[in-house]
Design brief:
The complex is a heterodimer of chains A (217) and B (243). Chain A is an alpha/beta fold and 217 residues long. Chain A has a domain of 126 residues: 3-Layer(aba) Sandwich (Rossmann fold), CATH 3.40.50.300. Helix content of chain A is 40%, strand content 17%. Chain A has a 6-stranded mixed β-sheet with strand order 2-3-4-1-5-6, sandwiched between helices. In chain A, α5 links the parallel β3 and β4. The radius of gyration of chain A is 18 Å and the shape is globular. In chain A, 39% of the residues are buried. The termini of chain B are far apart. In chain B, α5 links the parallel β7 and β8. Chain B has 8 helices and 11 strands. Chain B is of the alpha/beta class. Helices cover 35% and strands 27% of the residues of chain B. The chains are: A alpha/beta (217), B alpha/beta (243). Chains A and B meet through α5, α6 and β7 of A and α5, α6, α7, α8 and β11 of B. β7 of chain A pairs parallel with β11 of chain B. Chain B: This is ABC transporter ATP-binding protein. Chain B: GO terms for molecular function: ATP binding; ATP hydrolysis activity.
Chain lengths: 217, 243
């Protein structure tokens, strides 16, 4: 409940390791509330879970250098500094060899977003929540970033939860789709089934507006 | 007819646009695609006459673009309005600026076309939804019937379903009103569905221009191809499958 209004109705969910899941719904459907509730509940049970916000500005302190962010995250997670691990994670997100002794704005937004994802992966999360991962980025950068995260998640068995208002994006990247409508989980099925046989009115409306157009063959 | 001829603009010692050539006929939509920093916003400001080019020119039917002949729809609908004026006051501003009389019949017709309830115009920009505020932005651009409307990422603040609905309303009004639309965007899906022609802008230069169907069937530049691949990979464009 928020401000006396039920934002999220009782919801049961289970995630398979290494799965790629899309959580879709229009603005105000309760996506962010569900994410925050998931992160809180899982953390309370000792499950490693990481959340990458929509914009890197929400995650990085503009006055602190990137190497400070990294060592602070290591301290918070109780990890000893490990240069090899850092190099490996940065390499996975195509940031190898970039100097970290700069403040966030010394890097492009796409690089900042990938840095935040690398920080999130430092926790070796069982679940990585990506909130509207493409909205702050240009399409080429966004596509590359998602491909890098997916490859890394596949290597480590991390489950990815992509939260977006855009069914086209979720369908292109996820194997399983959850549809949220007015705080209720109205659909939970594999991507192919949802696209061809959406059951709920909310999912049918999303499917009807999935892509702008088809490419001519 | 809008013609942009060998437009070159320098800002802060950096050449932001170099030798840009474009044409756009009335009733048509030209989408200028490009990533952040490609020079899209500089192009918009130059066409509006807000920036003086170092070289080249912007012309309308062979003459300099007359004052008030072009209107702009901005990316962030709420930021585009004075927060202390009702939408009605802001929407009618272009008429006042050009000393034109109010036209309640036209206003009512445009409101219908944009699905804006007339009473929503008596609210402040912060009191309506983002979708309504953006449609009020389109209404303000259209009210004085300019022959050219520039759209700077007009849909990016809206959610996926609202985007598609708003785009259809704009296209419908364009058919009725016949304005030329210059849209700068990085949303290839929107361009594929609603533009007649495409221009790809990269690092201040036009990489290619083509009719929309031609472009999406076979982009000529390597950069155009990466844009199309990224849009497919992000699900903005479907890949047609033979049934």
């Amino acid at each position: 409940m928020r401000a006396g209004r039920t934002i999220l109705h009782p919801t049961d969910l289970s995630f398979a390791p290494g799965d790629r899941i899309g959580l879709v719904g229009p603005s105000g459907s309760g996506k962010s509330t569900l994410c925050h509730a998931l992160v809180d509940q899982l953390q309370a049970r000792g499950v490693a879970v990481a959340h990458v916000p929509q914009s890197p500005d929400e995650a990085l302190d503009p006055l602190r250098r990137l190497d400070f962010h990294w060592s602070q995250a290591e301290r918070a997670l109780g990890l000893a500094p490990d240069a090899a691990r850092r190099a490996q994670l940065l390499r996975a997100l195509d940031l190898e060899g970039r100097p970290l002794n700069v403040r966030p704005w010394g890097w492009s937004r796409g690089m900042q977003q990938r840095f935040v994802i690398a920080l999130a992966l430092l926790a070796s999360p069982a679940l990585l929540v990506l909130d509207e991962p493409t909205s702050a980025l240009d399409p080429i950068v966004a596509a590359t970033t998602l491909e890098l995260v997916e490859a890394q998640a596949a290597r480590t068995g991390t489950t990815l939860l992509i939260v977006t208002h855009d069914l086209g994006l979720a369908a292109a990247r996820a194997r399983r789709l959850l549809v949220l409508h007015e705080g209720k989980l109205v659909e939970d099925s594999d991507t192919g089934t949802l696209l061809t046989k959406p059951q709920s009115t909310a999912a049918q409306a999303l499917v009807a507006h999935r892509n702008w157009a088809d490419l001519p063959c | 007819m809008l013609t942009v001829e060998t437009l070159t603009v320098t800002r802060g010692g950096r050449t932001v646009l170099r030798d840009v050539n474009l044409t756009l006929a009335p009733g048509r939509t030209l989408a200028v695609l490009g990533q952040s920093g490609a020079g899209k916003s500089t192009l918009v400001a130059s066409v509006l006459g807000l920036l003086r080019p170092d070289h080249g020119q912007v012309r309308w039917n062979g003459a300099p673009l007359p004052r008030g002949a072009a209107a702009l729809v901005m990316q962030e609908p709420r930021a585009a309005f004075n927060p202390r004026l009702t939408l009605r006051r802001s929407v009618q501003e272009p008429l006042r600026a050009r000393r034109l009389p109010d036209d309640p019949v036209r206003l009512a017709r445009l409101c219908r076309g944009l699905e804006l309830p007339p009473e929503s115009l008596d609210r402040l920009p912060g009191q309506v939804s983002i979708g309504q505020a953006q449609r009020a932005g389109v209404l303000r651009a259209l009210i004085a019937a300019p022959p050219l409307i520039l759209f700077d990422e007009p849909l990016s603040a809206l959610d996926a379903m609202t985007q598609k609905h708003t785009a259809r309303m704009i296209s419908e009004l364009q058919r009725e009103e016949g304005f030329a639309a210059l849209v700068v965007t990085h949303d290839l899906g929107y361009a594929a569905a609603h533009a007649d022609a495409i221009a790809v802008l990269r690092a201040g230069q036009i990489e290619e221009t083509a009719e929309t169907a031609t472009f999406f069937a076979a982009p000529q530049s390597a950069y155009g191809r990466s844009l199309v691949e990224a849009a497919v990979s992000l699900g903005a464009l479907g890949r047609q499958t033979a049934a």
